[in-house]
Amino acid sequence: MKWWVKSWIGCIVWSCGECSSWLSKLEQYCSKKIPTVNGTYQDGTPTHGGFSSAMLVHQNFVVRIPEKVAPEQAAPLLCAGVTAYSPLKQFLNGSNKVLRGGILGLGGVGHLGVIIAKAMGHHATVISSSTKKKAEALEHLGADSFLVSSNAEEMEAAADSLDYILDTVPAFHPLRPYLSLLRADGELMIVGAVPQPLQFDAVELIRGKKNLYGSFIGSMEETQEILDFWAEKGLTTMIEIVKMDYVNKAFERMERNDVRFIFVLDLAGSNLLEC
Protein backbone atom coordinates (compact mmCIF):
# COMPACT_ATOMS: atom_id res chain seq x y z
CA MET A 1 0.00 0.00 0.00
CA LYS A 2 1.31 3.48 -0.90
CA TRP A 3 0.57 6.46 1.32
CA TRP A 4 -0.06 9.92 -0.11
CA VAL A 5 -0.71 13.21 1.65
CA LYS A 6 -3.87 13.62 -0.40
CA SER A 7 -5.49 10.40 -1.61
CA TRP A 8 -9.07 10.20 -2.80
CA ILE A 9 -11.72 7.69 -3.76
CA GLY A 10 -13.75 7.68 -6.96
CA CYS A 11 -16.98 5.87 -7.82
CA ILE A 12 -15.90 2.32 -6.95
CA VAL A 13 -14.42 0.76 -3.80
CA TRP A 14 -13.88 -2.82 -5.00
CA SER A 15 -14.15 -5.15 -8.01
CA CYS A 16 -13.42 -8.83 -8.61
CA GLY A 17 -9.87 -8.41 -9.94
CA GLU A 18 -10.15 -11.30 -12.39
CA CYS A 19 -12.82 -10.64 -15.05
CA SER A 20 -12.10 -9.53 -18.63
CA SER A 21 -13.09 -5.94 -17.80
CA TRP A 22 -10.62 -5.83 -14.93
CA LEU A 23 -7.84 -7.34 -17.02
CA SER A 24 -8.53 -4.74 -19.73
CA LYS A 25 -8.26 -1.89 -17.18
CA LEU A 26 -11.99 -1.28 -17.53
CA GLU A 27 -12.87 -2.17 -13.96
CA GLN A 28 -15.90 0.14 -14.00
CA TYR A 29 -17.64 -2.49 -16.15
CA CYS A 30 -16.99 -5.37 -13.74
CA SER A 31 -20.35 -6.99 -12.97
CA LYS A 32 -19.29 -7.59 -9.36
CA LYS A 33 -17.99 -4.09 -8.60
CA ILE A 34 -19.05 -2.31 -5.43
CA PRO A 35 -19.98 1.35 -5.99
CA THR A 36 -18.91 3.99 -3.50
CA VAL A 37 -22.52 5.06 -2.94
CA ASN A 38 -25.64 2.86 -2.72
CA GLY A 39 -23.60 -0.34 -2.93
CA THR A 40 -23.17 -3.26 -0.55
CA TYR A 41 -19.96 -4.75 0.80
CA GLN A 42 -19.54 -8.53 0.84
CA ASP A 43 -20.68 -8.64 4.48
CA GLY A 44 -23.92 -6.80 3.68
CA THR A 45 -22.82 -3.39 4.95
CA PRO A 46 -24.10 -0.57 2.70
CA THR A 47 -21.77 2.02 1.16
CA HIS A 48 -22.59 5.68 1.81
CA GLY A 49 -19.74 7.42 -0.01
CA GLY A 50 -19.02 10.95 1.15
CA PHE A 51 -21.75 10.74 3.78
CA SER A 52 -19.65 8.16 5.68
CA SER A 53 -17.41 8.91 8.65
CA ALA A 54 -15.19 5.96 7.61
CA MET A 55 -14.88 3.84 4.48
CA LEU A 56 -13.22 0.56 3.47
CA VAL A 57 -11.64 0.78 0.00
CA HIS A 58 -9.39 -1.58 -1.94
CA GLN A 59 -6.03 0.07 -2.64
CA ASN A 60 -6.57 -0.23 -6.40
CA PHE A 61 -9.38 2.32 -6.15
CA VAL A 62 -7.45 5.11 -4.47
CA VAL A 63 -6.04 7.99 -6.53
CA ARG A 64 -3.49 10.68 -5.82
CA ILE A 65 -4.57 14.33 -5.89
CA PRO A 66 -1.87 16.59 -7.38
CA GLU A 67 -0.73 19.42 -5.11
CA LYS A 68 -1.90 22.00 -7.66
CA VAL A 69 -5.53 20.79 -7.47
CA ALA A 70 -7.56 21.92 -4.44
CA PRO A 71 -9.74 19.24 -2.79
CA GLU A 72 -12.98 21.02 -3.67
CA GLN A 73 -11.85 21.22 -7.30
CA ALA A 74 -10.80 17.56 -7.37
CA ALA A 75 -14.04 16.14 -5.97
CA PRO A 76 -16.20 16.63 -9.12
CA LEU A 77 -13.48 15.16 -11.33
CA LEU A 78 -13.72 11.76 -9.63
CA CYS A 79 -17.17 11.14 -11.13
CA ALA A 80 -18.54 13.83 -13.46
CA GLY A 81 -15.10 14.80 -14.72
CA VAL A 82 -13.89 11.33 -15.68
CA THR A 83 -17.34 10.61 -17.16
CA ALA A 84 -16.67 13.35 -19.71
CA TYR A 85 -12.95 12.68 -20.06
CA SER A 86 -13.07 8.94 -20.78
CA PRO A 87 -15.10 8.95 -24.04
CA LEU A 88 -13.21 11.97 -25.38
CA LYS A 89 -9.90 10.25 -24.72
CA GLN A 90 -11.13 7.03 -26.32
CA PHE A 91 -12.32 8.92 -29.41
CA LEU A 92 -8.98 10.71 -29.80
CA ASN A 93 -7.10 7.39 -29.48
CA GLY A 94 -3.77 9.17 -29.16
CA SER A 95 -4.34 11.56 -32.07
CA ASN A 96 -3.49 15.27 -31.82
CA LYS A 97 -5.97 16.17 -34.54
CA VAL A 98 -8.07 19.28 -33.91
CA LEU A 99 -11.67 18.08 -33.73
CA ARG A 100 -15.04 19.78 -33.81
CA GLY A 101 -17.05 18.50 -30.86
CA GLY A 102 -20.55 19.06 -29.59
CA ILE A 103 -21.53 19.01 -25.93
CA LEU A 104 -25.23 18.21 -25.55
CA GLY A 105 -26.52 19.53 -22.23
CA LEU A 106 -24.79 22.04 -19.97
CA GLY A 107 -25.09 20.64 -16.45
CA GLY A 108 -22.46 19.15 -14.16
CA VAL A 109 -21.00 16.69 -16.69
CA GLY A 110 -21.66 18.95 -19.67
CA HIS A 111 -19.79 21.97 -18.35
CA LEU A 112 -16.80 19.75 -17.59
CA GLY A 113 -17.07 18.34 -21.10
CA VAL A 114 -16.68 21.85 -22.51
CA ILE A 115 -13.67 22.59 -20.31
CA ILE A 116 -11.99 19.29 -21.22
CA ALA A 117 -12.71 19.60 -24.95
CA LYS A 118 -11.24 23.11 -25.05
CA ALA A 119 -8.19 22.03 -23.03
CA MET A 120 -7.65 19.24 -25.57
CA GLY A 121 -7.61 21.85 -28.32
CA HIS A 122 -11.01 21.05 -29.83
CA HIS A 123 -13.56 23.44 -31.29
CA ALA A 124 -16.43 23.10 -28.80
CA THR A 125 -20.10 23.69 -29.63
CA VAL A 126 -22.64 23.64 -26.79
CA ILE A 127 -26.00 22.22 -27.87
CA SER A 128 -29.04 23.18 -25.80
CA SER A 129 -32.80 23.42 -26.29
CA SER A 130 -32.90 27.16 -25.49
CA THR A 131 -30.62 30.19 -25.27
CA LYS A 132 -30.79 30.37 -21.45
CA LYS A 133 -27.22 29.16 -20.98
CA LYS A 134 -25.71 30.74 -24.08
CA ALA A 135 -23.87 33.54 -22.27
CA GLU A 136 -22.44 31.13 -19.71
CA ALA A 137 -21.30 28.72 -22.39
CA LEU A 138 -19.57 31.33 -24.52
CA GLU A 139 -18.36 33.88 -21.96
CA HIS A 140 -17.58 31.79 -18.87
CA LEU A 141 -16.74 28.33 -20.22
CA GLY A 142 -15.06 29.44 -23.44
CA ALA A 143 -17.20 27.45 -25.87
CA ASP A 144 -16.64 28.42 -29.51
CA SER A 145 -20.28 28.33 -30.56
CA PHE A 146 -23.79 27.67 -29.27
CA LEU A 147 -26.44 25.68 -31.12
CA VAL A 148 -30.14 25.79 -30.20
CA SER A 149 -31.58 22.35 -30.92
CA SER A 150 -35.16 23.66 -31.08
CA ASN A 151 -34.21 26.02 -33.92
CA ALA A 152 -34.70 24.07 -37.16
CA GLU A 153 -32.70 26.55 -39.26
CA GLU A 154 -29.69 26.42 -36.95
CA MET A 155 -29.78 22.62 -36.85
CA GLU A 156 -30.01 22.35 -40.63
CA ALA A 157 -27.10 24.74 -41.08
CA ALA A 158 -24.98 22.68 -38.67
CA ALA A 159 -25.62 19.32 -40.40
CA ASP A 160 -22.51 17.16 -40.97
CA SER A 161 -20.32 19.62 -39.05
CA LEU A 162 -19.22 17.72 -35.92
CA ASP A 163 -16.73 14.91 -35.34
CA TYR A 164 -18.41 13.86 -32.10
CA ILE A 165 -21.19 14.74 -29.68
CA LEU A 166 -20.93 14.10 -25.94
CA ASP A 167 -24.55 13.54 -24.88
CA THR A 168 -24.87 14.34 -21.16
CA VAL A 169 -28.66 14.77 -20.99
CA PRO A 170 -30.21 12.37 -18.41
CA ALA A 171 -33.80 12.84 -19.65
CA PHE A 172 -35.54 11.32 -22.66
CA HIS A 173 -34.77 12.99 -26.01
CA PRO A 174 -34.82 11.75 -29.62
CA LEU A 175 -31.35 11.12 -31.04
CA ARG A 176 -32.06 11.54 -34.75
CA PRO A 177 -31.67 15.36 -34.79
CA TYR A 178 -28.23 15.05 -33.21
CA LEU A 179 -27.04 12.21 -35.43
CA SER A 180 -27.64 14.52 -38.39
CA LEU A 181 -25.01 16.89 -36.99
CA LEU A 182 -22.25 14.27 -37.26
CA ARG A 183 -19.84 13.81 -40.12
CA ALA A 184 -19.03 10.36 -41.51
CA ASP A 185 -17.26 8.31 -38.83
CA GLY A 186 -18.64 10.71 -36.23
CA GLU A 187 -19.61 9.41 -32.81
CA LEU A 188 -22.52 10.13 -30.51
CA MET A 189 -21.27 9.29 -27.02
CA ILE A 190 -24.04 8.76 -24.48
CA VAL A 191 -23.12 9.34 -20.83
CA GLY A 192 -26.48 10.61 -19.56
CA ALA A 193 -28.39 7.78 -17.87
CA VAL A 194 -31.80 8.04 -19.55
CA PRO A 195 -34.31 5.67 -17.88
CA GLN A 196 -36.50 5.28 -20.99
CA PRO A 197 -35.53 3.52 -24.24
CA LEU A 198 -33.87 5.90 -26.69
CA GLN A 199 -35.10 6.48 -30.24
CA PHE A 200 -32.77 6.64 -33.22
CA ASP A 201 -32.84 5.95 -36.95
CA ALA A 202 -30.75 2.96 -38.05
CA VAL A 203 -30.75 4.28 -41.62
CA GLU A 204 -29.08 7.48 -40.40
CA LEU A 205 -26.32 5.41 -38.81
CA ILE A 206 -25.82 3.20 -41.85
CA ARG A 207 -25.94 5.77 -44.64
CA GLY A 208 -23.98 8.34 -42.70
CA LYS A 209 -21.39 5.87 -41.31
CA LYS A 210 -22.06 7.18 -37.83
CA ASN A 211 -21.45 5.53 -34.48
CA LEU A 212 -23.54 5.41 -31.34
CA TYR A 213 -22.21 4.10 -28.03
CA GLY A 214 -22.41 4.48 -24.27
CA SER A 215 -19.71 5.14 -21.71
CA PHE A 216 -19.84 4.64 -17.93
CA ILE A 217 -17.68 6.89 -15.72
CA GLY A 218 -14.04 5.91 -16.39
CA SER A 219 -11.26 3.56 -15.34
CA MET A 220 -9.01 4.26 -12.36
CA GLU A 221 -6.19 4.91 -14.79
CA GLU A 222 -8.31 7.56 -16.50
CA THR A 223 -9.37 8.99 -13.15
CA GLN A 224 -5.73 9.61 -12.26
CA GLU A 225 -5.15 11.00 -15.75
CA ILE A 226 -7.85 13.65 -15.48
CA LEU A 227 -6.53 14.81 -12.10
CA ASP A 228 -3.04 15.16 -13.55
CA PHE A 229 -4.53 16.81 -16.66
CA TRP A 230 -6.31 19.37 -14.46
CA ALA A 231 -3.08 20.21 -12.67
CA GLU A 232 -1.03 20.41 -15.86
CA LYS A 233 -3.51 22.70 -17.63
CA GLY A 234 -4.40 24.79 -14.56
CA LEU A 235 -8.13 24.19 -15.10
CA THR A 236 -10.97 25.28 -12.82
CA THR A 237 -14.28 23.55 -12.12
CA MET A 238 -17.32 25.78 -11.62
CA ILE A 239 -18.63 24.71 -8.23
CA GLU A 240 -20.63 25.91 -5.24
CA ILE A 241 -19.47 24.66 -1.83
CA VAL A 242 -22.21 23.92 0.69
CA LYS A 243 -22.25 22.73 4.30
CA MET A 244 -24.17 19.72 5.60
CA ASP A 245 -26.92 21.89 7.09
CA TYR A 246 -27.68 23.15 3.55
CA VAL A 247 -27.80 19.75 1.86
CA ASN A 248 -31.62 19.51 1.69
CA LYS A 249 -31.85 22.95 0.10
CA ALA A 250 -29.12 21.93 -2.33
CA PHE A 251 -31.20 18.92 -3.41
CA GLU A 252 -34.24 21.19 -3.88
CA ARG A 253 -32.18 23.56 -6.02
CA MET A 254 -30.88 20.66 -8.08
CA GLU A 255 -34.48 19.66 -8.83
CA ARG A 256 -35.05 23.21 -10.12
CA ASN A 257 -31.80 23.12 -12.12
CA ASP A 258 -30.61 26.01 -9.95
CA VAL A 259 -26.90 25.24 -9.71
CA ARG A 260 -23.92 26.41 -11.74
CA PHE A 261 -22.69 23.80 -12.13
CA ILE A 262 -21.87 21.36 -9.32
CA PHE A 263 -22.50 21.37 -5.57
CA VAL A 264 -19.56 20.21 -3.45
CA LEU A 265 -20.51 19.10 0.06
CA ASP A 266 -17.98 20.24 2.68
CA LEU A 267 -18.27 17.65 5.45
CA ALA A 268 -14.97 18.61 7.08
CA GLY A 269 -16.18 22.18 7.52
CA SER A 270 -19.65 21.21 8.74
CA ASN A 271 -20.81 20.96 12.34
CA LEU A 272 -22.44 17.55 12.07
CA LEU A 273 -23.82 17.75 15.62
CA GLU A 274 -26.04 20.65 14.56
CA CYS A 275 -27.30 19.03 11.35
UniProtKB/TrEMBL annotation:
Cofactor: Zn(2+)
Membrane-spanning segments: none
One Pfam family this sequence matches: ADH_zinc_N
Limits of the Alcohol dehydrogenase-like C-terminal domain: 108-230
Family from the record: Belongs to the zinc-containing alcohol dehydrogenase family.
Database matches in PANTHER family: ALDEHYDE REDUCTASE (PTHR42683)
Protein name: Alcohol dehydrogenase superfamily, zinc-type
UniProt keyword list: Metal-binding, Oxidoreductase, Signal, Zinc
Taxonomic lineage: Eukaryota, Viridiplantae, Streptophyta, Embryophyta, Tracheophyta
GO terms for MF: metal ion binding; oxidoreductase activity, acting on the CH-OH group of donors, NAD or NADP as acceptor
Signal peptide residues on this chain, from the entry's feature table: 1-19
Alphabetical list of InterPro entries matching this protein: ADH-like_C (IPR013149), CAD-like (IPR047109), GroES-like_sf (IPR011032), NAD(P)-bd_dom_sf (IPR036291)
